[in-house]
Design brief:
Number of strands: 0
Number of domains: 1
Protein name: Rod shape-determining protein MreD
Mean pLDDT: 88
Radius of gyration: 15 Å
CATH topology: Arp2/3 complex 21 kDa subunit ARPC3
CATH architecture: Orthogonal Bundle
Shape: globular
Keywords: Cell membrane, Cell shape, Membrane, Transmembrane, Transmembrane helix
Oligomer: single chain
Strand content: under 5%
Family: Belongs to the MreD family.
Low-confidence stretches: none
Membrane topology: Multi-pass membrane protein
InterPro entries: Cell_shape_determining_MreD (IPR007227)
Structural class: mainly alpha
Number of helices: 7
CATH class: Mainly Alpha
């Protein structure tokens, strides 16, 4: 239990710092940004209390908002991602989730990609809808969501494979 707590604490701090120091300054073509801090929500232990995940996700999003001066959009999108996470887990992993036996270190790559994609798209749609906050700018919201999601999904999967997968 202590090992899991320390690993999650380290992951929280590293992803927060990487997001704030590196990823938030990429801004490719004016609207493509990776949001890798959501990896924390994706990899949070499944057997942990769901309320703990919601509170920690809010705290993570709030800290990103404080550092980026973004007014709460990351906190809202992070909480939505944490709230919808069980649906994405069940959709992506099926019976493994039902039996609480998912180990991200040895899951199928297709299931992992599905899980990351569903979560990232949900997070980004909420994030950019709140950021733009205009129905007349729906094309801008969709464009930012699509391109930032592609970049985020690729980075998230690479990071998860490099740092979480079993070495064979």
């Amino acid at each position: 239990m202590n090992n899991i707590l320390s690993a999650n604490s380290i992951r929280f701090v590293i992803l927060l710092l990487a997001q704030v120091i590196i990823c938030s300054h990429i801004n490719f073509m004016g609207y493509i940004n990776p949001y890798i801090y959501i990896i924390f929500v994706f990899l949070f232990p499944i057997r942990e209390n769901r309320l703990v995940l919601l509170v920690i996700s809010f705290l993570l999003g709030l800290l990103v908002d404080i550092f980026l001066d973004s007014g709460g959009v990351h906190a809202t999108a992070s909480v939505l991602l944490a709230y919808a996470r069980p649906v994405f887990l069940k959709t992506s992993f099926g019976m493994l989730y039902e039996h609480q036996s998912i180990k991200f270190t040895n899951t199928e790559l297709g299931s992992l990609i599905t899980y990351i994609t569903l979560g990232t798209l949900t997070h980004h749609i909420m994030l950019f809808s709140l950021e733009v906050f205009s129905v007349t700018s729906i094309l801008l919201i969709l464009k930012k969501t699509l391109f930032s999601s592609i970049f985020t999904i690729i980075l998230c999967i690479l990071i998860i494979i490099l740092f979480s997968r079993n070495k064979k």
